[in-house]
Amino acid sequence: MPMVGLGTWQLRGEECTAAVVAALAAGYRHIDTAAVYKNEEEVGAGIAAGGVPREDIFVTSKLQTSDHGEKAYDACLASLDRLKLSYLDCAYTA
């Protein structure tokens, strides 16, 4: 897990996508998001547009409190769908 990552809290729309692309261009390899941030689609678009192979990026997302326990698996799948990714490197509860 890279020591420094881009936190995407409060980033929305094109600003979010552009920030992810710029971070990847600057050498960042850890991108952090969460379902509650409501920006996973934009984060995923930035990852797709960033030109860095997915396996070289550490992607973290967080589950909402209401998604703990038996709901965790489905919540992760929903995040993956919004991000347009096939896996998360780390998912945890916020």
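(the above was protein one; protein two follows)
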Amino acid sequence: MSEVLDFTQKATILVVDDAAENLTLMHGLLKDTYDTKLANSGERALRIAEASPPGLVLLDIMMPDMDGYEVCRRLKENAKTRAIPVIFLTAKSEVEDEQRGFDIGAVDYITKPVSPPIVLARVKTHLTLKAAMDYLRDKNVFLEAEAARRARKA
């Protein structure tokens, strides 16, 4: 019997937005399926992600002090956080803004106002992809170690 594994259950989602109402909205949307952490600034988001890397980051672009592009860039520079998928969740809707987000490492880009079913579907998709990538990476490390062990025995 084949068992379907759902890698997205109770994953942690870090939501980053300077507007309290947006944090409240996203927490309300995600809380029944995921654990949520909320950050109202880029600096706070980076501290949270470094201390306990989430499964995914939903990141606003337009924030004071440090914008979302800079937060994403720093996440991707850090070995501990670079594999975390980042989805921009923003009011910036120009093609150039979206392209810039992808260029610095985002996996998706959702414009506000958001459609809850779309946000949930994309979050689930990217968490599933990350789980598969993590599994393959771990399997590869195991197989390389096993090949090295067998080569030493030969």
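Reviewer note on protein two: The mean pLDDT is 92.
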